[in-house]
């Protein structure tokens, strides 16, 4: 009996040991189907990284497992590895039975890779064989959104919903599209249906929070965002949205808590560092904000909005003598050298100007900028930079060989650069001894050349998914880029306006010529700017500008193009500085695109006004005092012959000249027109070709062709799982 009991106990023990061992070492017993089943569970919980590993394990055991290839491609798509998604979908196509799903995934991957024509062919071919396929309609709808055909996209999503009345992606996409079109009631209806049919989906609550915030219902938005987090505790996008909602409400301490929580889980979240810096700035902790921005930029150096915000914070709060400014300007110095290597003069100049705005006392940067001006033939500006460098240079004792020493003293006298600068300055002063500024005893750099007063305004969205305060940062950056334009005075209102009437009232009362309402948009890989330009005198629309750029430096390239587009509609106007014996001195020169033989109307001071509609200026015939023809043209000044109109000469210094006709030499090397000067005739048509007009071929193509546009809306719909 005892022996039987012992045998039974031993049998039970061995059975339990075998079971435990089987669970402890599953690799020998797991099949491809087992790995696939576990991976599916992880994918359904949005753990795409964990699922990817298990799908690969399944494919190691069965390389012809079509469903595993397809699911692995789905994970890569959701992780934004679109090349891999396309490759794995191709493998799935060899072995999978569900061909339409595989081909739809191929099409969506092609859309994300920018191969839109190939994607459209795939979706259209699917609908030819499967007219009720919903996913193909989703693909075609996204193509319409990229082309700006939002109504067509709405129709396709509606057709998809007719075929599946509770389809989550159809309901959420229609809610987002309706909100974008201003159909608030329809958007609320679709999101309510989605919440009713998919109440356990964190994604549905997340998008409900976004739409509530977009409509201004921040309380509802906060509740929905918290619901999304409760359903899926590792939903980082929901934490980011909640922090943006709280930031909009001014609850900065709570924002900081969430940002620290997100950073604690993943220190590489540059957007969390950005929002933390904004919140610290709002609380008055400038040093903390600068450190947060610096950390964020070290993680993502190409985040142009964060860099602009960082530099604006530096400009507002840090003394120009602060030694840290030189380090902060290093990014722009590197970019300038990159542009120089590509022989892109306007880009190089822009980056050196940005570097000098951050570190104006950095003489090495100013030296590089001066050398650039010399290469561009702007010798008067070059001489001014040399004078500044000489006045601010500090002698440094060194043992280097590139210095001149007194043989009887170890004291350093001058470096090689100082010697070269002094020699260049002396030579230039000798060459310029007979120029107009010397002959007329006028320093052109002390003249007030302001001809145009422009106001910049913006309206603010309630919530931004990538960069909070984007509008304020973008409008300040747009204003800053005009700081190098001597003929324009740009006033930036850093508080949002309620609408067009507020902007018109403010601009008219401030005596502006034009006012511009700016609307920036961004995605992870693009930046766009819509600008509506109005006459501040009449309130009528002058023109509108729509610019979109993708890739690196997309914000900087957009802003440069915006400046050029504005200057292209501003007529070239000058002022009479002095007059003697029928000869006039005018404050226009080669930098403005003027060459000998250019003709102007001389107009009574204060009689020029903007046109009632469209670009350009107008003035009464009775206010034309005569004509002026440029004969001698320097960089910033020109002189020439004045012919009066009528019997009496009533022209005085301070009266204006308006370009009527450029000479035939305007395109020759004699002109060194700057990209930072007005370039239009009196009708507002550009007549001067400046240094930035010769963009590289790819930029010209990008500026002219109709491009597929990434946007916040497209990004949200694309991420719906």
From TrEMBL:
<keyword id="KW-0802">TPR repeat</keyword>
<dbReference type="Pfam" id="PF14559">
    <property type="entry name" value="TPR_19"/>
</dbReference>
<feature type="region of interest" description="Disordered">
    <location>
        <begin position="669"/>
        <end position="704"/>
    </location>
</feature>
<feature type="repeat" description="TPR">
    <location>
        <begin position="270"/>
        <end position="303"/>
    </location>
</feature>
<dbReference type="Pfam" id="PF13432">
    <property type="entry name" value="TPR_16"/>
</dbReference>
<dbReference type="InterPro" id="IPR019734">
    <property type="entry name" value="TPR_rpt"/>
</dbReference>
<keyword id="KW-0732">Signal</keyword>
<protein>
    <submittedName>
        <fullName>Tetratricopeptide repeat protein</fullName>
    </submittedName>
</protein>
<feature type="repeat" description="TPR">
    <location>
        <begin position="32"/>
        <end position="65"/>
    </location>
</feature>
<feature type="signal peptide">
    <location>
        <begin position="1"/>
        <end position="24"/>
    </location>
</feature>
<dbReference type="GO" id="GO:0051301">
    <property type="term" value="P:cell division"/>
</dbReference>
<dbReference type="GO" id="GO:0016567">
    <property type="term" value="P:protein ubiquitination"/>
</dbReference>
<dbReference type="GO" id="GO:0031145">
    <property type="term" value="P:anaphase-promoting complex-dependent catabolic process"/>
</dbReference>
<dbReference type="InterPro" id="IPR011990">
    <property type="entry name" value="TPR-like_helical_dom_sf"/>
</dbReference>
<dbReference type="Pfam" id="PF13181">
    <property type="entry name" value="TPR_8"/>
</dbReference>
